[in-house]
Amino acid sequence: MSxxxxxxxxxxxxxxxxxxVAENLxxxxxxxxxxxxxxxxxxxxxxxxxxxxxxxxxLIERFSPGKERYIAMIKSALLNRLKMGNIVYHGLAGHxxxxxxxxxxxxxxxxxxxxxxxxxxQRGQVSEVMARARLAQEDRERSSWSNYFCKVMPSxxxxxxxxxxxxxxxxxxxxxxxxxxxxxxxxxxxxEARKQIEDMAFAATIKATLxxxxxxxxxxxxxxxxxIKLPQPMRGIEKTKGEITDLLSDIHGIHQIHFDIKSNAxxxxxxxx
Length: 273
Prior knowledge:
Elements: E1 3-8, H1 14-25, E2 28-30, H2 33-42, H3 46-54, H4 66-82, E3 87-89, H5 94-97, E4 105-110, H6 113-124, H7 128-149, E5 162-165, H8 171-181, H9 191-210, E6 218-222, E7 225-234, H10 237-247, E8 256-263, H11 268-271
Parallel strand pairs: 1-3, 1-4, 2-3, 4-5, 7-8
Antiparallel strand pairs: 6-7
Helix pairs in contact: 1-8, 2-4, 3-4, 4-9, 6-7
Protein name: Histidine kinase
Organism: Desulfoluna limicola
Pfam family, one: Cytidylate_kin2
């Protein structure tokens, strides 16, 4: 059981590499399928989800939780697919959504700008000037998104186990390198790693359920024992606990919920002044 994520800029042959790797290994290849599953499950339009994963936040969005809500939903759908194993994921924000998932082979593919421009010209039937402008805008959006949500740039090598530059390496050679690397013991799922990703997927499911009302909730889970932390102090803690418990009533597998909520109720002396 193994998982591979492939990150790349637009028109960098990432889809071709991902599909070839999946075919060679007999893995499932996922990208936009995750958005379709998220849209169906949470009744959110796919273009809205795509925008949440692609566009850098504008000024208003920096002070509202809109994108974070959609990303929580997408992460839930992705982790619940990844826990099945033997998957190559090359969708947007893979480097962000799986940062804490253990024993995942994280790949970054680089392509020469001249080759990217040619592909964009052919794909969009546009001039070289227009193709360069489109790619520059695309790169800016992805960098803005990653810098805001990940606090690092997508080109930062620390996010990846292997960075492959296609300028001097063919796609076939790139595929072979990835297929050879995934056979390393460190990228083979142990029982412990499998259990960890199952817990992460379960916590993500709970987070996605709570996110429309409690978007700042921090959720962890271990074998059905769930911890829910609300960073901001709350009034009416018992009421809040009851609301959260009701929201999660349809999720099977929760054995125990521990709440970490601080009160912001006024002291009794202050209330009587």
